[in-house]
Structures are given as structure tokens and as C-alpha cells.
Design goal:
The complex is a heterodimer of chains A (318) and B (558).
Chain A: E1 2-9, E2 20-27, H1 34-45, E3 64-67, E4 70-73, H2 79-82, E5 88-92, E6 99-101, E7 104-105, H3 108-116, H4 136-146, H5 153-156, H6 159-163, H7 170-180, H8 188-195, H9 209-213, H10 220-233, H11 240-255, H12 260-266, H13 273-289, H14 304-315
Parallel strand pairs in A: 1-5
Antiparallel strand pairs in A: 1-2, 3-4, 3-5, 6-7
Chain B: E1 3-9, H1 13-24, E2 29-33, E3 49-50, H2 60-70, H3 77-97, E4 111-112, E5 122-123, H4 129-143, E6 147-150, E7 152-160, E8 163-171, E9 176-187, H5 208-215, E10 220-221, E11 226-233, H6 243-246, E12 250-252, H7 260-263, H8 273-285, E13 294-297, H9 303-309, H10 311-321, E14 330-339, E15 342-344, E16 356-358, E17 363-364, H11 376-398, H12 409-421, H13 429-443, H14 450-467, H15 481-505, H16 523-526, E18 528-533, E19 540-545
Parallel strand pairs in B: 1-2, 1-9, 2-6, 9-16, 15-17
Antiparallel strand pairs in B: 3-5, 4-5, 7-8, 8-9, 10-15, 10-18, 11-14, 12-13, 13-14, 18-19
Classes of the chains: A alpha+beta (318), B alpha/beta (558).
Chain lengths: 318, 558
């Protein structure tokens, strides 16, 4: 099988260092992964191509990179599955991290954020003589999060990080969830308070990109949503994010549809309304000019009782 | 210039456990690792970690006997006793650290069966036990604020008057060489699987620590003892955990027979790894294989068990073979996996070289002897990692600051410069490694004989000559992986040569060292360790007695 590998390269020692694309034309076996192909390049064509890789079995997390624009593990990606009809495959370093050389990125921002969530078990009181007693279901649930190999694919393609480098990001938040959900950990209230700050759980826009690219099925966004639930559950409901969720829910429960005006006014909280209104007035004006201003008097939809029944069923209330 | 009390080379399970122990003992400790700690190959350990927990009626002496028998009586029984006695506390400590071990119905630690053992005493996290432990130790290293020199590659030990006083290391990010001084150095660099092709081991597993110690004058012990794992995927050699058989999977030949009946009627698929690998290879060699493989059948285990306990191998098999192992048996064969031999140490991790310690796969205490039991390697890393860390910290307390001078860097600098200065001659590190890997696989594997091993040794020596003329194509400084692989290849060639020399010297069959020309175990002449020292004339063979405490040699049947 013939392949044209288009690799985005970068040599920091060039006279004028800037990224460029290099094409490698290769004859490879049908079963080759993208990593097999890159190794073939490195061993037989061009020793100077730099990349990280080790286990070849999607467990060490070294070889995350962008393949045709999306983050993936090169060792887990079959070449035949990503070639276009002309046999082209595009390979670039991960996003949202500075590049050191070729496909090698500087993961310091990634590790700094993992460290920021204090990723170690924090039990209280004396340790038991034997093991902690814990339900197997809880441990199996945690194993699903522990399966994270810290490859950085989710961080690479996180759309929030692209515009706000302060966001803790999907990997660090999933790691935080691993402790909050651990029955042996007693620091959840402190952890959740830290996570509701700017850059924490409420900054995720739920774009699903991390869920899509995670090679281990860790579902980082799902973990972030679970952290939001837990935060609200322990009474941390005064952030904009938490109030937005609540107002949104109440509006739909009340009228069957979203009251956008009310959402805009109630979300920031009573004391922040003047500031929020001044921020929103231009949006409001533009919406009005385009005829998209939501109605001042919000009406309930017909068949509202069906919506309420959904709420009752979901929330388990009569 | 950086300086520490204790320097740990390698940040896998043994290295991080050692660093935590040394740090807790009050030593200024740092890790030097050529990859980020969580990329270490300990990740790849799947099935679990052994321990006899007395509070549920298990007995550490039973575990110890299984280990002695597994080792074909080549393991030192005093060391095995230490490991098995301390195992229970180590498991509880790991659990307290945060490892999410699977539980039983009462919420206590659950176990599964593993090879070579009469009882279920393997504690596990699905089939990602190594990864789950590695992550937790990394968390503890972060919490303890142990300094880590990440992506620094150690090129040589800094020796002064026969005493180890630190290391010379290449910082990959800048290409700069550094001397890191230390009162004590612990090697925890893992195995040497890449000496073989194929292998279950990652590309980073290149025998660095063994070669570093060997070149500094420490003896390598039992290097002929190389483990072939019974279940690896054809082609890329990726590992399929023994836990599959521990949970009840069958091995079948082309006729659909559970052929282990003929080789190990009592333990069947859960006999020792060397026994199962030989059985498989015999089936394949005698024409009862399927395309160079035998079959591993998990179908009867049921989808639910597979998904909760063996999810990772299910993923790997789907990725590489496009087979759902809940529906179809998978083709597997014996593959290079582990080396029982390594740097000779005592039970404190001390090597015969003052200031130099070793732990984990690169070391040989010896607890694995001629054949390691599945799930004993993680235990080895945790027990002897901790012991080496404590002993090195105690040693460092007694020592003055290292006196070695930075001029020692010059030798490595020269070696690197000559690789860079040479013009390309058509040869490459990749070609040399591949030839080495193939010749080792052909002749120093499951079945061996004199003629084959001589071919391997001769070839390795020819490759060493080629290596001396090699040119590195990448002339840059930043992240020069071409230079890195070349230096690693130098280490691997030393390891390969020592393995061949040791294997040729052992005139018997024991454990993983099975000679078709000498198929019997010979306790009269060969119940001893083989040692190899570096000398100007090449490897020098020596031997050391095996420590027997309470289990005299018996016939080994499963």
C-alpha cells in the first residue's frame, strides 16, 4: 500500500525557525498504524524526524498528535482508516501546547494543570489497619477514569483552551473527578470549591471534542459535568455557571421553553445585574435591530404538562 | 552544577518507589528519567501484583515456595523470603496511597489467579494494574516534591576511584551534557526487551542501567535468563495479559485441543511461563499451530467479565487484529517479555560497586532466578525499590560530598562528537538493532543450542564493530532522537553480548534457559548464578552460589 505522509515539521535550530510541511512517500503494509509509518520514516528515510513514542499499544501516552486535524494516538490509528482517496495523511503536533521540535510538544502547561488539582488521595483520620473497605462498583467506576494515560489528546483539541489558557482543561478536571468520586478521599468540599473558580468546571462549553478524541474512553467532559452536579449538590450554587443551570432548568420547568431575557438577567445574580446589563446592552441592541430580541412577555408552550411529566420522571418526584 | 544526596535513574515503579523512600528518609533526592515518569514501561504491566495476605488465610511461605519453584531453584531463597514476607504490607500501603484495586463482594481487596501458583493471590486493577500503580506513585512523587530531571538521558556513571559519585546525563531538550553529582545512585531503568525483535517491551526499554553498571565494573548476573511470555500477538509482539488465563481462558492448538494437558496436567494453562511457552512452541514446531501461533480462547468467559476485568486487552485486540475476543479465539505465540537477570544486588539493593544501587527489572537480587512468576515483577519493584531507597539514603548520610570533577563529561562529549563528525556510510542504528534483535530471537530464545548461540554471539560482535563506525545523521542539538537511539544501541549491544556469553556458559537447562543439546537440569554443577564482568578482553565469566534456606531442589512438575 502506498502512502504520502504529510508531516508538519519544526526545527528550532534553523536560521529562521518556522513550521513547514514535509512529504514522505512510502510503501507500507496494510496493517500499519500511523506510528508504524512514522517509525519507518525515522528508521529508513529520515533520522532527523523527532517524535515521542514507546509502548506501541496505547498505554504509555507518548504518541498523541494531530492526524488529519484531530488529536489521536499514532499507535492506535490504523493508517488505512485515515488515508484520503489519494493516499495522503496529514500529521501535526498536538495543539494548545508549544512545539519543541517536529512532533514533540512541550507538555509543561499540561502537567502544571494536573498538579494544580492536587492529584493525590487525601483521606482524613488515621489509616485503617487493613485496606479501606469500598464497594467494587465504585472502584470499577474509578478505573474508567484511571484509564486516562495523560496523553494530552483532549487538551490538544479543547476549544476552550484555544481561547483561554487559564482553563484547567479536560485532563486535569477528569483527574480531579477521580479523587472527588473516590470513597476514600475526604477533601471533596475543598476540591469542589477550588474547581468552581474561574478556569474550573463551569468554563467548559460542552463541545464534546475531548470525548471524541480521547483514545481511552475516559469521557472527560462527562466527568466535568459530574463535578458540576457534585458542586451544586454540596451547596456550591452561587457561581454564574451554577445559576445559569438553575435558571435554565426553572424556566423550562415553568414554561416549557427557555425565557432568554430572564436567563440573562437572573444568571449573574441580583447584585451583578447593573454590570451585566451594561455588558449586555449592545448585544440587546444588535438583537433588536436584527429582529431577534426575545419577547418581553414570555409565554408557556402548549402541552406544558408533558414537559412537567418529563421533569417528574427524571427527578423522581411526584 | 546539580548535586543531590540520592539520585534515582529511571522513574518507573521501582524508581519512584525508591525516590519516595529516600526522600522520606530525609535524603535530598532527585529522579533522572529519559521519559516523563508516567510514560515509563511499568505502565504495560497488566495482570496484577502478588501477595499473600495473612488476614484472609494465605501464607507467605506458600507464595515463597511457588516463587522458588517458578525460578527453577535459581532464585536466592533469602531474597524471596524477604519479598514474600513484606508483600502483604506493601499491598496495603499501595491501597492506602490510592491504587483503585478491584474489590470482592464485601468491599475488601479482590484477587485473581495467576500462573505458577496454587492460590489466587494476585491483586489487580482490571488489566491495567501497572498503569494504575504508576499513576499513584507519580501522584506521591508530586506531593513529596521530589525533583525530576525529565527527558534527561544518563550516558555514563560518574566514577571516582571505583566509587559511584553521580551520573553524566544528556538533556534532550537542549542537547547539553551535565554532571549530576550524588552521594548514591540507584539504577531503576527497567529491562532490555529491545535487544530482541519482536518484544512486548516499549521502544524505550533498552537495558540502559545494566550497561551503565556493567561498564562501571558491576557484575551482571543470570543474563541468560530471558522470559518469553506465552501470550503475545503475532506481528508487533504486543502483550496479552496472563490474567486472561487467570480468569479461565484456554490455550488451543489447530485441532482445538487444550494441549497443556500433555505438558502440565495439574496446572494446565497456569503453569509457569517458561513451561507454557515451551509447550506452545513445541505445538507450533510439530505442526499443530495455526500460522505460527496457537489460539487463546476467551469466549466462555462471557462478555461482561471480559469488559470489566479485561477491557484493555479487548481494546488492543480490536485495534490490531480487528477481532472481538469475546467472539473468536485469538492467535498468540511466545514473545520476548522480561529479563530475570540484571545487575547483581543484595537484598538492600546494593551492588558490589560502592555508592551504586539497583532495583526493579534492571537488578538481579535474585528473586526470579530462572523464571519469573507472573505478577511478581510489580511486587519486586515495590519491595526492592523501597529497600534500595532506604539503603541509599542511609549510605548517603555517612558520605562526604562527592569530589568528582566536571572534566568527566569530556569522554561522553568526545563519543558523541565522533558520531556526529563521521560521514554516513550507509549503515544505521536501526539496521544494526534489527539484525541484533532477529539473531537473538532466532538463537537465544525459547529453545537454544550451542551452535545457535555461537552464531548469535559472533553476529553481536560483528555488529559492535559496525557500531564503532556509525554516523548520526541528525546534527542538531535539540531533541536529537537519532543520537539518543545510537547511544541506547550501544547499551543494547553490551547487554546482548553478555546474554550470549552467559547462555553459552550455562551447560544445562534451567527455567527459561532451555538447551535442546543439554535438556536436563544439572544441580550438581550448575545450581549457581552466572556472573559476567566487563574486562579489557571482553566479558569475563564468573559464578556465585545460590542461597538455599528451606526448600532444597526438587523435580519441577506442574
Amino acid at each position: 500500500m502506498h502512502v504520502t505522509l504529510q508531516v508538519k515539521r519544526f526545527n528550532p535550530e534553523a536560521p529562521e525557525p518556522k513550521p513547514y510541511q514535509q512529504e514522505y512517500f512510502l510503501e507500507v503494509e496494510e496493517h500499519f498504524t500511523v506510528l508504524d509509518t512514522l517509525i519507518k520514516v525515522r528508521e529508513e528515510v529520515d533520522e532527523t524526524l523527532a517524535l515521542r513514542c514507546s509502548c506501541r499499544a496505547s498505554i504509555c501516552g507518548s504518541c498523541a498528535m494531530r492526524i488529519n486535524g484531530h488529536a489521536a494516538l499514532a499507535c492506535k490509528t490504523k493508517l488505512s482508516g485515515v488515508m484520503d482517496p489519494h493516499g495522503h495523511v496529514k500529521v501535526e503536533p498536538v495543539g494548545n501546547m508549544p512545539v519543541i521540535k517536529d512532533l514533540v510538544a512541550d507538555m509543561k502547561p499540561f502537567w502544571d494543570k494536573v498538579r494544580a488539582v492536587e492529584p493525590w488521595l487525601q483521606p482524613q483520620g488515621p489509616e485503617p489497619e487493613h485496606e479501606y473497605i469500598a464497594p467494587n462498583e465504585a472502584m470499577i467506576h474509578l478505573t474508567g477514569v484511571m484509564a486516562c494515560i495523560m496523553c494530552g489528546a483532549c487538551v490538544s483539541d479543547c476549544t476552550v483552551l484555544e481561547v483561554d489558557s487559564n482553563f484547567l482543561g479536560p485532563a486535569a478536571l477528569a483527574k480531579a473527578y477521580r479523587f472527588v468520586a473516590d470513597p476514600r478521599d475526604d477533601a471533596s468540599p475543598t476540591r469542589l470549591r477550588a474547581l468552581e473558580q474561574y478556569g474550573g468546571v463551569w468554563d467548559c462549553t460542552r463541545c464534546y471534542e475531548c470525548v471524541q478524541v480521547c483514545p481511552k474512553g475516559v469521557d472527560p467532559m462527562g466527568r466535568i459535568m459530574a463535578l458540576r452536579d457534585k458542586a451544586v449538590h454540596v451547596g456550591l450554587d452561587q457561581t454564574i455557571g451554577a445559576r445559569h443551570t438553575e435558571v435554565f432548568t426553572e424556566s423550562v420547568r415553568h414554561s416549557g421553553t427557555l425565557d432568554e431575557l430572564r436567563l440573562a438577567i437572573k444568571t449573574p445574580g441580583i447584585f451583578n445585574i447593573p454590570a451585566q446589563l451594561s455588558q449586555l446592552r449592545w448585544v440587546g441592541l444588535r438583537a433588536m435591530l436584527k429582529g431577534k430580541m426575545p419577547p418581553i412577555f414570555h409565554k408557556s408552550i402548549p402541552g406544558l404538562r408533558h414537559v412537567r411529566r418529563i421533569f417528574e420522571k427524571v427527578e423522581g418526584q411526584p | 552544577m546539580p548535586e543531590h544526596d540520592v539520585l534515582v535513574i529511571g522513574a518507573g515503579l521501582a524508581g519512584m518507589r525508591a525516590a519516595l523512600a529516600a526522600s522520606r528518609a530525609g535524603a535530598d533526592t532527585a529522579l533522572v528519567t529519559k521519559v516523563h515518569p508516567v510514560r515509563s514501561h511499568s505502565n504495560a504491566a497488566q495482570g496484577g501484583i502478588n501477595a499473600a495476605l495473612t488476614d484472609r488465610g494465605d501464607d507467605w511461605e506458600d507464595h515463597a515456595f511457588n516463587t522458588v519453584k517458578g525460578s527453577d531453584w535459581l532464585g536466592d531463597q533469602d531474597a524471596i523470603e524477604v519479598m514474600c514476607r513484606e508483600a502483604g504490607d506493601a499491598i496495603i500501603e499501595l491501597e492506602h496511597m490510592g491504587v483503585v484495586f478491584n474489590r470482592d463482594e464485601e468491599g475488601r481487596l479482590g484477587t485473581r489467579r495467576f500462573g505458577g501458583q496454587e492460590r489466587a493471590r494476585t491483586f489487580f486493577v482490571a488489566d491495567i494494574t501497572g498503569q494504575a500503580m504508576l499513576q499513584v506513585l507519580y501522584e506521591k512523587v508530586l506531593k513529596a516534591r521530589v525533583r525530576a530531571y525529565e527527558e534527561w538521558f544518563v550516558t555514563s556513571l560518574a566514577m571516582e576511584d571505583g566509587v559511584c559519585q553521580g551520573v553524566v546525563a544528556l538533556e534532550l531538550r537542549t542537547g547539553q551534557l551535565h554532571l549530576i553529582k550524588a552521594k548514591a545512585v540507584i539504577l531503576a531503568t527497567g529491562g532490555a526487551g529491545r535487544v530482541y525483535e519482536p518484544t512486548t517491551n516499549g521502544l524505550i526499554v533498552t537495558g540502559d542501567g545494566m550497561a551503565l553498571a556493567y561498564r562501571a565494573g558491576a557484575p551482571l548476573m543470570d543474563m541468560e535468563m530471558v522470559q518469553y511470555h506465552p501470550t503475545t500477538l503475532k506481528g508487533n509482539g504486543v502483550l496479552i495479559t496472563e490474567a486472561a488465563r487467570g480468569e479461565g481462558a484456554y490455550l488451543l492448538n489447530a485441532k482445538g485441543e487444550r494441549f497443556m494437558e500433555r505438558y502440565a496436567p495439574k496446572m494446565m494453562e497456569l503453569a509457569s511461563r517458561d513451561v507454557v511457552s515451551r509447550a506452545e512452541q513445541t505445538e507450533i514446531n510439530e505442526g499443530r499451530g495455526v500460522d505460527g501461533c496457537v489460539l487463546l480462547d476467551l469466549r466462555h468467559l462471557g462478555r461482561e467479565l471480559i469488559e470489566t476485568k479485561l477491557g484493555y486487552i479487548k481494546e488492543v485486540v480490536t485495534d490490531f487484529l480487528s477481532i472481538d475476543l469475546a467472539d473468536r479465539p485469538i492467535p498468540i505465540r511466545p514473545g520476548n517479555h522480561y529479563i530475570m537477570g540484571g545487575i547483581k544486588t543484595d537484598v538492600q539493593g546494593a551492588t558490589p560497586v560502592p555508592g551504586l544501587y539497583a532495583a526493579g527489572e534492571c537488578a538481579c537480587v535474585s528473586v526470579h532466578g530462572g523464571n519469573r512468576l507472573g505478577a511478581n515483577s510489580l511486587l519486586d519493584t515495590i519491595i526492592f525499590g523501597r529497600r534500595a531507597g532506604e539503603a541509599a539514603a542511609a549510605y548517603a548520610r555517612e558520605m562526604d560530598r562527592p569530589s568528582i570533577s566536571e572534566s568527566i563529561i569530556a569522554k561522553t562529549q568526545e563519543e558523541m562528537s565522533s558520531f556526529l563528525a563521521r560521514d554516513a556510510n550507509g549503515d544505521s542504528a536501526a539496521k544494526i538493532r534489527l539484525t541484533m534483535g532477529q539473531v537473538m530471537t532466532d538463537h537465544v530464545a525459547v529453545f537454544r543450542d550451542e551452535a545457535g548461540m555461537q552464531i548469535a554471539l559472533k553476529t553481536v560482535r560483528e555488529l559492535k564493530a559496525r557500531y564503532a563506525c556509525l554516523a548520526v545523521q541528525d546534527k542538531g542539538r535539540v531533541f536529537n532522537t537519532s543520537m539518543l537511539f545510537t547511544l541506547e544501541l550501544g547499551f543494547m549491544l553490551d547487554v546482548a553480548e553478555v546474554s550470549c556469553v552467559s547462555a553459552l556458559a550455562r551447560k544445562e537447562s534451567r527455567g527459561a534457559h532451555y538447551r535442546t543439546d543439554l535438556p536436563e537440569r544439572d544441580d550438581v554443577n550448575w545450581l549457581k548464578h552466572s556472573l559476567v564482568y566487563a574486562s579489557p578482553e571482553g566479558p569475563r565469566i564468573d559464578s556465585a552460589p545460590v542461597t538455599i534456606t528451606q526448600w532444597p531442589p526438587q523435580r519441577r512438575v506442574y
